Each structure stands twice: as C-alpha cells, then as structure tokens.
Amino acid sequence: PLVLGIETSCDETGIGIVRGRTLLSNTIASSMDEHARYGGVVPEVAARAHLEALAPAMEAALAEASVSLHDLDAVAVTSGPGLAGALMVGVGAAKALAVSLGTPLYAVNHLVGHIAADLLTGEEVEYPTVALLVSGGHTSLALVRDLTSDVELLGETVDDAAGEAFDKIARILGLPYPGGPEIDRAAATGDPNAIRFPRGLSRASDMAKNRYDFSFSGLKTAVARWMEQQEAAGAEISIPDVAASFREAVVDVLVTKALAACADHGVPRLLLGGGVIANARLREVALARAAEAGVTVRIPPLTLCTDNGAMIAALASELIMSGRRPSTLDFGADSTLPVTEIQVAEGVRS
Ligand code: ATP
Ligand code: MG
Ligand code: FE
C-alpha cells in the first residue's frame, strides 16, 4: 500500500511516504534551532512550528515521491506519546486529509514507529528482537515479538531520558544545545576512565528489582557536584575528560541493560533507535559487546532513527498488510500512550 505518514510528536515535523516496505520520501523540518536559547524543547514553540511546516513538508514529500494525494491508499499519524499540543497539530491535519480524500486513516504509536523504521532499510527483518529506543524524550527497552500485534515494554527511564541527560550535562559543561553532538565531539579527545561516574540502577539489588529500567538524574547530580568540587578546589578541569567519562557511564548502562534483556529472553537480536543513536561511542560499544554475546545489532540510518514520518507510514503499511482495520475518527492526541498500544482506535472488523 501507498501510505503517507505524519509525525509531530516533538520538534520534528516529519512527512514520509512509503509503498509497502519501500521508502519513497522522508521530509523532515525541525524547530530545534528555535529551542536552542531555552536549552530544551518548548512545547508551545514546537506546536506552532508544526503548523507552519506541515503544508510545505507535505508538498515536498509528495514531489520527492512523485505521487499525488489521490494516489494514497492510507494516511498514518502519530497519536502519541509526545507533547500534547504538538501531537494535536498532526492528528488534526491527518484527520482533515483523510476525510477530504476519503482515505483510511491509521493512528499509531510513535515508539513502535521507531521500531518500524528498521523495515525501510531494505534488509531482511527478523523477530523477536529487543529494541532500545533512546532520544530526547524517551529511554525505553522493549521486546518485539510481532511488530503489528505484540510489543512488550520491558523497562524505561524513571526520570530523565538519555538525550535529555546529554542536553543537561552539556549545559553544566558550558556547551550549547543540543548537547548530544557537542558532548560526543568533546569526548573524542577525552579519557572515558578519567572519572568514575555512577551507573544508574545498576547495582546488584537494582538489577534484581529494576533490571530494565534506567535512571540518569543521579548521574547528572554527580557530574554537577564533581564540577563544583573541582572549581572550589581551583583545580583545572578537562572538559573532554568529563564529557568522555559521562558519555561512558550512559553508554555502559544502556548497552548492559539491553544485552541483559537479550540474554534473559533468549533473543539474539538488538535494534537501536532514536536520536541518541547518533552517539559514536554508543554504536561502538553496542556493536563490540553484542558481538561478544552473539547478538546481532541493527542500526537504521540516522535519518530513520530520529523522529520522521516515514517510520509512521511504515508501521501503518505493516498494519494494513497484516489485515488491520483503519482507526475510527474518535481518537485524539495521547501524550502518554503506552508502547503496547501499537494502533489507536482500530475500527471494528466487519
Ligand atoms: P522523541 O523523544 O520524541 O523521539 P526528540 O526530538 O527529543 O524526540 P530526537 O530528535 O530523536 O529526540 O533526538 C534528539 C536528542 O538526541 C537530543 O537530546 C540530543 O542531544 C540527542 N543526541 C543527538 N546527537 C547525539 C549524540 N551524538 N550523542 C548523544 N545524544 C545525541
Ligand atoms: Mg527531535
Ligand atoms: Fe521519537
């Protein structure tokens, strides 16, 4: 099926078009620059930016895919989770588009969309797989037995998301927003073992109780305290060493828990998704440790890892191919939609 996907859950306005599992176009407009002076995504600014970006992004995506709106078999949209106001812009646009074209509409889960992005790489995809989703808003570990019917949440962050931690630490280190790329760059010349920062929820007692959950707020406090102590002592601070040591702590815990999930469930596959996958050290450590554990790692290209509309279209396309009914129009934006709800408001089977 030819599907157009609309994604507006955070600061990317994404319009993607797929045919089956073939990617035809993936247009992304980001309002990231507008959030830079606030050091994080401002919901009202993001929602307004989506309103302005949607129409041109849609025109660009249709032109790039060389299709017209009337060719579409379905429209897909992110219903949640995400920022309520931002989601509402996409949901409203998708409903208007589907109704005016008389086209089926699929309201889908953003996190499962990140997992569906992997379908568009053109490579053979196998389930079950463990999926680690790390972005500015999410840090989730899921067990995917079937993309269209069985996604189980194993764990998630109990406080900050991994990307959020990068952004906050960058601020402490005096680096600009978004912090992830800045810390990656600074860390390249630093010593990852210079300072031993805490690995959240990783002690033996935590691994028994919160085995697949993440926590980064303690790490943030530890870095802040370490900086204060050094400054108070008049010691010279190596930003590359702090950045590398912080990055190592985040990467270590992400990879350790993801591979624990693979081992516990006897699943030799790990899929990585979300904007933090841009992190060079995360990819390096994940690949090395997974190889030792006999786990195959899949990392879609970064344009499919960060928020985009193509992954939303890919998920809907997969739902259609497995015979699922379109969503009824009574769904809304659900900022806390759980990962287990793959599709929202599926119509009753006739
Ligand atoms: P959502 O959480 O809804 O998926 P988002 O916009 O917060 O959306 P992304 O756009 O996928 O998330 O990713 C942005 C986040 O990724 C930011 O927090 C940014 O700092 C982080 N990031 C980007 N590049 C890197 C990197 N090289 N290393 C670590 N983090 C990075
Ligand atoms: Mg973003
Ligand atoms: Fe996302």
What does this structure look like?
The protein is of the alpha/beta class and 350 residues long. The chain is 43% helix and 19% strand. It has twelve helices and eleven strands. It has helices at 32-35, 43-65, 84-101, 110-116, 162-172, 179-187, 204-209, 217-232, 239-264, 280-293, 302-305, 309-321; strands at 2-7, 12-19, 22-30, 74-80, 105-109, 129-134, 139-146, 150-156, 269-273, 296-298, 343-344. The strands form two sheets. The chain has a six-stranded mixed beta sheet with strand order 3-2-1-4-5-11, with helices on both faces. A five-stranded mixed beta sheet has the order 8-7-6-9-10, sandwiched between helices. Helix 2 (43-65) runs parallel beside helix 3 (84-101), helix 5 packs across helix 6 and helix 9 (239-264) runs parallel beside helix 10 (280-293). It is globular and about 70 Å long. The relative contact order is 0.19. The structure holds adenosine-5'-triphosphate, magnesium ion and fe (iii) ion. Residues 9-12, 82, 135-138, 163-164, 166-167, 178-181, 184, 274-276, 278-279, 306-307 line the site of adenosine-5'-triphosphate.
